[in-house]
Amino acid sequence: MIQLTEIHKTYKVGNKQVEALKGVSLNVEKGQIFGVIGFSGAGKSTLLRTINLLEKPTSGSVVVNGQDMLSLKESELRQARKKIGIIFQHFNLLSSYNVYDNVAEILRMNKVPKDVIEKKVKDLLRLVGLEDKANSYPSQLSGGQKQRVGIARALATDPEILLCDEATSALDPQTTESILDLLLDINRKFNLTIVLITHEMQVIKKICDRVAIMENGQVIEQGSVLDVFSNPQQPTTRNFIKTIFDDEVPAEILSNIKPSGPAAKILRVAFRGDAALDPVLGNLSARFPVTTNLLYGSITSIKGTALGILLLHISGEEKAVQEGIEFLRQSVYKVDIVTREEAAR
Ligand SMILES: Nc1ncnc2c1ncn2[C@@H]1O[C@H](COP(=O)(O)OP(=O)(O)OP(=O)(O)O)[C@@H](O)[C@H]1O
């Protein structure tokens, strides 16, 4: 649906050059919710805006729905942009227009007949839960309600893609949840492809299928949210995950592990909620002469799928430990052998 390949973007500021994007490549499938996370200045906004060419890349290719966006004429680009809605952190509503007109405006500009506009706006306001606010002005709305208007307006042209530029960053946690529920709802109802940028891992965890982590103008890691959460590779990714899912083992617990032979290992075991873990651990000790010790356990929900992380100390004869680890690998989502330092990081 969206293919960004080797995108570079350099801004000129006076006689200085700022390299905002340094060769970013991404692939977003139809119907996916794709999240891009990174600290301030990582290049997220610039990247998001290259999708509808609000930012023109310095080099690289942008293909949306099979169309090479950079080769389009101005009028073709206008048409292509109708299929790409966008919502913003600060909502960007027209303050002198009421809710109805904020949504209707784009349809009027596109010369849609009045009766069609009326039905469409009514349907959209119902969809976002604002039927009773059609005559209110933005200043009379809460942040969450303003973003609902933003979403209704973005959906007015029946886009296939919705870009979300820090859409929940100005909202409190509870309102954020309700806006994310709405995004999930429209993604499912319309098979709408959503690309969102955020600095909150909570947002990624709740609604995204895939995630790219950006740092310093580059994507440093990407994959399915479940994979990235269960086995983060980069320190920055781990730091983001830690904000909602801390798998650090207190040093005193680690120092209490008795030296128990050269074969002893610390395992990081990731399991999905649908895999029953109790029988696995029971079978492990029943079938192999190993001793296991649970150091840490945590469970979180990733878009409705439970993901558990355990740190397990396993000891015994070398052969038994190896076979036990193999058995675990076949039974759970992922098993990694970690050092004490890694377990405590
Ligand atoms: N129009 C511009 N002119 C010059 N430099 C820019 C421009 N837009 C962005 N930059 C620079 O490009 C880099 C990436 O900025 P960008 O806004 O894409 O990051 P971001 O990850 O979205 O950050 P934030 O979360 O703070 O919005 C930054 O160093 C920024 O200062």
Sheet/helix structural class: alpha/beta
> What does the main sheet amount to?
6 strands, mixed
The residue fraction in helices comes out at: 25-40%
Q: End-to-end distance, in Å? A: 38 Å
**Overall average pLDDT:** 90
Query: Remind me, CATH topology of the largest domain?
Result: Rossmann fold
Strand order of the largest sheet: 6-7-8-3-9-10
- Binned strand content: 25-35%
Whole-angstrom Rg: 24 Å
Give the names of the bound compounds. adenosine-5'-triphosphate
Which CATH C-level class of the largest domain is it?
Answer: Alpha Beta
Number of domains: 2
Low-confidence stretches: none
Succession of helices and strands:
EEEHEEHEHHHEHEHEEHHHEHEEHEH
The total count of strands amounts to: 14
What are the SSEs and their pairings?
Blueprint: E1 2-13, E2 16-28, E3 33-38, H1 44-51, E4 59-64, E5 67-68, H2 74-82, E6 84-88, H3 99-109, H4 114-127, H5 143-155, E7 161-165, H6 173-190, E8 193-198, H7 201-207, E9 210-215, E10 218-224, H8 225-230, H9 235-242, H10 251-255, E11 265-272, H11 277-287, E12 290-302, E13 305-316, H12 318-331, E14 334-338, H13 340-344
Parallel strand pairs: 3-8, 3-9, 6-7, 7-8
Antiparallel strand pairs: 1-2, 1-4, 4-5, 9-10, 11-13, 11-14, 12-13
Helix pairs in contact: 3-4, 3-5, 4-5, 5-6, 11-12
The structure holds adenosine-5'-triphosphate.
Quick recap of the structure?
GO terms for molecular function: ATP binding; ATP hydrolysis activity. This protein has 345 residues and is an alpha/beta fold.
